[in-house]
Write a structure and sequence with these properties.
alpha/beta, TIM Barrel, 10 helices, 8 strands, binds phosphoenolpyruvate
């Protein structure tokens, strides 16, 4: 398993359901991931169909997946197991993204099983949590995040093997980001007040771009970012990697 404690910042690109062979060619032609600081870990999570193509072009970056099956093997048409991801060089895998929770109705228990499968294969799960705008307005953010974390964390998890991504749902793909103070306070709450994830690495996600990445990543309690839309533009993601 990759030693994540060696990294000061972890920067993850989530391409979602975007890309093509032509896109990959052009993207890696333009992406500047040379001369990354040694303590920065850059990760690309393409759609599973492009994992091999992507791996051959990554150079100093790491490969991640966007999801995995909760099943090991068998009659589950369309699924991709953690061991298949491992055989295809995935080091990280996002689980519990809000789009999986909302569109595909995944619950904390599903996410816990997926994360456990990944840990068995020595892949680092990036477990996403986040509140809706309605929950935020009702001042339920802390409560919601705690409930998600505690119920999605597999039993054999540790701060060396699991990463948490705080992604307020209202900030994903909307151009709205939480304020710097809010981000830092929520990360502090997660790291210090929830003993199950004490001192875990916590990434922030939600409309991160090349303009705001540096100030977000410089916050004391932020260990990196999970980037959706802006990670599809090679010039923007190059800047974020160097922010
Ligand atoms: C995401 O998909 O995890 C995400 C944070 O998206 P965006 O950066 O586009 O808000």
């Amino acid at each position: 398993m990759l030693e994540i404690k060696e990294f000061n910042k972890i920067i993850v690109a989530n391409w979602k359901l975007n890309g093509s062979n032509d896109f990959l060619e052009a993207y890696f032609e333009e992406l500047d991931s040379k001369n990354l600081r040694l303590n920065v870990c850059g990760v690309i999570c393409p759609p599973t169909a492009y994992i091999q193509n992507c791996y051959s072009k990554l150079h100093s970056l790491y490969l991640g997946a966007q999801d995995c099956s909760k099943f090991k093997e068998g009659a589950y048409t369309g699924e991709i197991s953690a061991s298949m991801l491992k055989e295809n060089n995935c080091i990280f895998c996002i689980v519990g993204h809000s789009e999986r929770r909302q569109v595909f109705k995944e619950n904390n228990e599903d996410i816990k099983i997926k994360a456990a499968q990944l840990l068995n294969e020595k892949i680092i799960p990036i477990i996403c949590i986040g509140e809706t705008l309605e929950q935020k307005k009702m001042h339920k953010t802390h409560e919601v995040l705690k409930e998600q974390v505690i119920n999605s964390l597999p039993p054999n998890s540790s701060k060396e093997s699991v990463i948490i991504a705080y992604e307020p749902i209202w900030a994903i793909g909307t151009g709205m980001t939480a304020s710097l103070e809010e981000i830092n306070d929520i990360h502090e709450y997660l790291k210090k007040d929830i003993k199950e994830i004490e001192d875990y690495k916590i990434l922030y996600g939600g409309s991160v771009n090349s303009k705001n990445a540096s100030e977000i990543m410089n916050l004391e309690n932020v260990d990196g970012v999970l980037v959706g839309g802006a990670s599809l533009k090679a010039d923007q993601f190059s800047e974020i990697l160097k922010a």
